[in-house]
Design goal:
- The chain has 481 residues and is mostly helical.
- It is 63% helix and 4% strand.
- The protein contains 21 helices and four strands.
- It has a two-stranded antiparallel sheet with strand order 1-2. A two-stranded antiparallel ribbon has the order 3-4.
- Helix 4 packs across helix 8, helix 4 packs antiparallel against helix 11 and helix 8 runs parallel beside helix 15.
- The two termini are 27 Å apart.
Length: 481
């Protein structure tokens, strides 16, 4: 019956369908409320160490019940009190009767609420960074493998000069390495709210320690260190500045933009049949069109990336309307926007890892597309070869112009193949360079320094960023589709 009831309620697909277990747990009630209890233990330990009348037995009692949370009791208490923190204070006190008088001593709700949020944000980055490193690593392997494979470059989605498959992948990698730096910076910039009191003045703690400012500062530092932070914010209102949330979610939104661009490129290339994402042996692309191989993973990434980018509006507006020392209209919004940003980024990275581990390249299709366009691109090289053979540049230019337009008419009006090369070979004017045409039209003479750029870029800018994560990179991802 309970299982049936579960399907009678809305369930966020971010959790029920997509996100990893570790990220789903990071934003779970169990993680949240056990962290609240751990923070109360840190506070009690520091207050005891600094001379307040708290016993070792009280702390042991609290430590013994840190993860023993009666969620039903807490829900009932919150129903009566209309206050989530006090509901959990009462629930914790119920199972720790000896410690009950000193739980939450001197603290305000944001001591557990905001400090827990900062811990969860930090831990969320610690989950995302190895995943982003893994995606970057897989794409770097792909770029290196195809560093010198010529392919049509596109500007305005019109054929332009050639590049290589690996060089194009480096354009994607450059964005991801920027995201790596942004996420790492946002993670490392996080500080602890610490022990600040109701309006951030630490007045309640100053009273507890009978006006001893040094002990209040020491208390703040001790709890900050126990929570695993190097620094606390020196000034806060009741809450830490909501600009911190902007900082965190902006780098995730920026990651969303990177992934959307990468996956859009993959979708465009899939239409050209040059590159495909992995396709399972029994996967169905369309219920009506059995031949289709839809880029559904890339489409999923784009779909979720749009949501991730859109979430950026929430912390911007929330920070803008925090009146004076705080206002509670941030709470409901942050309960949604913070978890959803990390959960969305998490599944995007898992999906993109699956894509980058199984990208399929079709060199023959790429070669055919090059053959269709390269004769037009090679006209300047043909002219230069004729000049070296003693021809007049203006005469040669006019010959090539006429033949190019004739060949273009065959392609555009008749739907035929580009026959410019055949026309050049038949024209006696070009007899002096016929033996050079094969070399002139070698695609590898049109890719410039693309292979060298790939090698240097991977060596200097990608692999150093990945080095700290070598031991943390995930194994191959199998997606539940």
């Amino acid at each position: 019956m309970e299982a049936a009831e579960e399907f009678m309620k809305y369930r966020s697909p971010l959790v029920s369908r997509y996100a990893s277990k570790e990220m789903a747990f990071n934003f779970s009630d169990t993680k949240k409320f056990s962290t609240w209890r751990r923070l109360w233990i840190y506070l009690a330990k520091a207050e005891k160490a600094l001379g307040l009348p708290i016993t070792a037995a009280q702390i042991l009692e609290m430590e013994g019940r840190e993860n023993d949370i009666d969620f039903a009791m807490a829900a009932e208490e919150e129903r009566k009190l209309r206050h989530d923190v006090m509901a959990h204070v009462h629930t914790f006190a119920h199972c720790c009767p000896a410690a009950a008088p000193i739980i939450h001593l001197g603290a305000t709700s944001c001591y557990v609420g905001d400090n827990t949020d900062l811990i969860v944000l930090r831990d969320g980055f610690d989950i995302l960074l190895p995943k982003l490193a893994t995606v970057t690593d897989r794409l770097a392997i792909f770029a290196e493998k195809h560093a010198d494979l010529p392919t049509l470059g596109f500007t305005h989605y019109q054929p332009a000069q050639l590049t290589t498959v690996g060089k194009r992948a480096c354009l994607w990698l450059q964005d991801l390495t920027m995201d790596m730096r942004n996420l790492q910076r946002a993670r490392d910039d996080l500080r602890f709210r610490g022990v600040k009191g109701t309006t951030g003045t630490q007045a309640s703690f100053l009273q507890l320690f009978q006006g001893d400012h040094a002990k209040v500062e020491e208390l703040d530092g001790m709890v900050t260190e126990m929570a695993g932070f190097k620094k606390a914010y020196l000034v806060t209102g009741q809450t830490y500045s909501r600009k911190v949330d902007i900082d965190c979610l902006s780098c995730l939104a920026s990651l969303g933009a990177s992934v959307h661009k990468i996956c859009t490129d993959i979708r465009l290339l899939a239409n050209l049949k040059e590159i495909e994402e992995p396709f399972e042996k029994e996967q169905i692309g369309s219920s009506a069109m059995p031949y289709k191989r839809n880029p559904m993973r890339a489409e999923r990434c784009c779909s979720l990336a749009r949501h991730l980018m859109a979430l950026m509006a929430d912390p911007l507006q929330t920070a803008a309307v925090q009146w004076l020392e705080r206002t509670l209209d941030d709470s409901a919004n942050r309960r949604i926007s913070l978890p959803e940003s990390f959960l969305t980024a998490d599944i995007i990275l898992s999906t993109l890892q699956n894509v980058t581990e199984g990208l399929v390249v079709y060199p023959k299709v790429i070669e055919r597309h090059i053959r269709q366009e390269l004769p037009f691109m090679a006209t300047e090289n043909i002219i230069m070869a004729m000049v070296k053979a003693g021809g007049n540049r203006q005469d040669c230019h006019e010959k090539i112009r006429v033949l190019s337009q004739e060949a273009a008419a065959v392609v555009k009006q008749e739907g035929g193949d580009n026959d410019l090369l055949a026309r050049v070979q038949k024209d006696p004017y070009f007899a002096p360079i016929l033996g050079q045409l094969e070399a002139i039209l070698d695609p590898k003479t049109f890719i410039g320094r693309a292979p060298e750029q790939v090698g240097r870029f991977l060596s200097e800018e990608v692999r150093p960023v990945l080095e700290p994560y070598q031991s943390k990179m995930n194994a191959t991802v199998e997606l539940e589709l």
